[in-house]
Structure formats: C-alpha cells, structure tokens
Amino acid sequence: MTLLRDIKAIQRNDPAARSIEFLLYSGFHAILIHRFTHLLWKCKIPLIPRLLSQIARFLTGIEIHPGAKIGKGFFIDHGMGVVIGETTEIGDDCVLFHNVTLGGTGKHKGKRHPTIGKNVMIGTGAILLGPIKVGNNVRIGANTFILMQDVPDNTTVVGTPGKIVKMNGKSVSIKLPPSKVRQTNAAKRNRLYPLDSRMEL
Ligand SMILES: CC(C)(COP(=O)(O)OP(=O)(O)OC[C@H]1O[C@@H](n2cnc3c(N)ncnc32)[C@H](O)[C@@H]1OP(=O)(O)O)[C@@H](O)C(=O)NCCC(=O)NCCS
Question: Residue 51 in contact with residue 78, Cβ under 8 Å?
Fold first, then answer.
C-alpha cells in the first residue's frame, strides 16, 4: 500500500512520469531502499541498515538515515544532494526537490532534526535545521533557510532567513516564530538567570 502511494505521488507530481517510467526515478529507488532499511532499523539490526543506506546514497545521491520516519506518498524529485537526518519525521504526501537538507544544528541531542507535517512541498536547495516543526499544507520555496523556527499550517515560506509570504491563501509578510524547543530553552534560562541578575553581571 505504502509503495503504491509512493508511485502515485510520482505520477501526481511529475507530469513527465508516464506509465512505468517511475521505475527510472532515483527518488523512487531511494525511498524503496529506505522503506526496507527503516524496517531493519526498527528491528534494531546493527550496521546493515546504515550500510544499505550508504549504498543507496552512492547509487542515488540521496542520503536518508534509516532512522528517519517517512509517511506514505513521499516523492523526491531529481534527488541529488538530499540529506534527511536520523530523527527526521515526515508526514504523508510530501514532496522534496534536490539539494534539500533536513538536518541538525550540531547543538542538540536526541530529537535534533525537523518534523514535517502532511502535504508539504520543500523546494530545491532549502535548508531546515534543528528539531523544528513544519505544519500541514506548507510550501517552502527554493533556497529557503530555516534555523530553529517553526512553520505554521497552510503557509508559504520563502527567503533567507525564511519568512511567511502567504497564509491561508492571502499574501502576508510575517517573521517565523522561534521553535518550541528554542522557546522552552529561553524560558529555562530566564528562570535560572532572571534578566535582572544577568544585567548585574
Ligand atoms: C514558493 C513556491 C512553492 C510558490 O509558492 P506559492 O504559495 O504559489 O507562492 P507565490 O508564487 O505566490 O509567491 C509568493 C511570493 O514569494 C516570492 N517567492 C516565491 N518563491 C520564492 C523563492 N524561492 N525565493 C524567494 N521568493 C520567492 C514570489 O515572488 C512572491 O513574491 P511577491 O508576492 O512579492 O510577488 C515556488 O516559488 C517555489 O519556490 N517552488 C520550488 C520549486 C522547485 O524547487 N522546483 C525545482 C524544479 S527542478
């Protein structure tokens, strides 16, 4: 069922994919291998899932860590240069273009990669870093950069740094809110070192 949804996603998103041409897509090869490596990962089999994902990377140019959770109907168009980190979560019906990075900042432990909602399109070259949350029905423009900021539902985000240019179909210009993790850390810092005491230092 999941694979069927992946195939339909290719045909829905790329008019060039006629009949069985989906078999030629490197994005399809990468997700096919990932569905298998993720299964091995969940069974806690050592080394083999990482080995297979590295072989897939060599063959497709797409690096998906076996730990990443990816929903049904997933499509990577063109593919080359895509990086999807270990604790990434991606909802159903998402599309990624080449050179997208769903990565960590290097500062977080445990959950350190983005969580992407359903029906999200991420344009070529976009870089999303940290344990951030991207809502449902979001479009992220080519070359957008998002660092430790959450993206609300039903929005289009573009630019470096990314900002919201459309919300519920209407043009807007809104800064992205800091991610929940960043807000929680700031609140903790404020509790430990209230602003007044920090000014005295
Ligand atoms: C963002 C995108 C999805 C369009 O989404 P949309 O909701 O239809 O938004 P719009 O096209 O109405 O654009 C809204 C505004 O953002 C601007 N914009 C769109 N994409 C942008 C981008 N990548 N970077 C900077 N600004 C961008 C538009 O110029 C427009 O600005 P304006 O209101 O001042 O005219 C599309 O522009 C995009 O970047 N797609 C990526 C596709 C891709 O990677 N293709 C690779 C094929 S090989």
Answer: no
Tokens of 43: 């069974």
CB 32 within 8 A of CB 53: no
Locate tokens 């903790």: which residue? 188
Report the nearest-CA residue for atom 38 of ligand 1.
Answer: 141
Tell me, yes or no, if the pTM score tops 0.90: yes
Ligand 1 pocket, 159 CB below 6 A?
yes
* Backbone phi and psi for residue 197, each to the nearest 5 degrees, phi listed first: -65, -30
Percentage of the chain beyond pLDDT 90 is 84
Ranked by mean pLDDT, the top range of 64-68, 189-193, 195-199 is 64-68
Report which protein residue has its CA nearest ligand 1's atom 17. Answer: 158
**Do the beta carbons of residue 121 and residue 103 sit within 8 Å?**
no
